[in-house]
Input
Amino acid sequence: MAELDLQPVDAAALTALQPTDVGWITCVLDDFESFIQDHASAEKKASGMALSMVAHYPDQAALVQAMVDLAVEELNHYKEVMGLLMAKGMTPAADRKDPYVTALNKLVRKDSRFFLLDRLLVGAIVERRGAERFGLVAAHVQDPKLAKFYHAIAKSEARHWQLFLRLARDLCPNLDVDKRFCELAQQENDLVARLPLRAALH
Output
């Protein structure tokens, strides 16, 4: 298999990300402890998801390498968030179901012809929203160290969503990847518009 193209994704023809409601950042800043607890959980789950992809597709060398690297990066983020949380005297919280991720995962088609494509594209869409929302946190928190941290996290999420899309294009060349991305992106925009605002990433 050819080496994965690492150039930035041309997103001009893709369904645009609808901006998060301004009320979301107010919820986050009003209960930042809940937000950072949820952030830690989200990083841990992201690492687990990447390792799950490795387990399901051990014969896909490009995918395995990318997901191993991603799992390590997400776990490092988890460690960093846990460090921030404990430094502020906060208590880690138990993982909770994420209604946003649960709803998106239900859109993954079980047919083996489309399953890998949809998993990759849902991953891209989740990371794209994460990049936007972490960017909002970076822009609004008062602590300069937190702002710097969340700016870096937002940049990582932006790289991640493009990685998932590149993998989908590379591994599913016989499918209309961009069309399916646009379908899922529109459903994600609709989902975000109707979910209640809370002090959580999603």
